[in-house]
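INTERNAL AUDIT FORM
Audit reference: QA-55
Scope: verify that the stored structure record matches its stored sequence.
Auditor: D.O.
Record contents follow.
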Amino acid sequence: MQDLLVSAMITDTVMDNLQECITRYRTNKARHDLAFTERLYEDAKKEYFRIQQQYARYTDGNQYVALKSYLIEQERLQNEMTLAYGIYNQVAQQLQVAKAKVQEITPVYTVIQPATIPLKPSKPGRVMILAGTVFLAALISMFWVGFVKSKKRDH
């Protein structure tokens, strides 16, 4: 770019966009796994609370009943609640692992030297470009003159 400020701004923008794109690409699967685990967690939590409420209602409604059929139903509900809690707890652990994995594979970028507006033009300078052009022109001219003279001598 001709304008130094525009050049520095474009460099910063491209660098930020590139970092964002690479981060999205590298963490895509882990983020999908995290979202899936979060859905599982919410479902397990709702199911556990639903069974817990069902158990509490049954226990409160049949507090002083001594019939074996009621006690067996209470024990079945308690086992179901324990199983639901185990699933809920296991999914909660998987959720923490999924969060840690996303954090672990997210790349960390360090900008060693940010884009700056230069105070003077970079190398090569105008004099060096001019000298190189003159040297190249002289070299081509000598080759051309030598080639043309050798062609004329051959004829």
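Auditor finding: record pair retrieved intact. The radius of gyration is 38 Å.
Action required: none
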